[in-house]
From TrEMBL:
One of its GO terms (cellular component) is extracellular space. Coiled coil: none annotated. The lineage of its organism: Eukaryota, Metazoa, Spiralia, Lophotrochozoa, Mollusca. This is Fibrinogen C-terminal domain-containing protein. It comes from the Eukaryota.
Amino acid sequence: MGTSEGGKEWAHYKVFTVHEAATAYRMNVDAFGYQGSINELFSYHDNFKISTFDRDNDANAEHCCDKSLNGGGWWYNSFYRLGNVNGVYGKREKGGIGYRDSKNVPIKNVTVKIRPMKRTCGHVY
């Protein structure tokens, strides 16, 4: 992630899984073995379905994706921590692209890299 101030941050998870459409793209992430330049934040959203402006799958009664975060789809618990990566570009407060640790940290760009699993259920790919 490139911060708005020109810094670079990163987060690496050994286990990150997005399930099929029938589960509303439920996501699982394991903090075990986490490495990164920021605090581990994404496991807060473990086991949640993706939320979008028209699909409220978060734990916030006020539908945080639509009303608070400007409709950008992502995995949210009751609030975002690692990732409002589909927010409003250039907006520096809540609803913009960023992550939340002890404060809202606006980010300029995000690159997500996903590597396929080498073994799944005993099959080699």
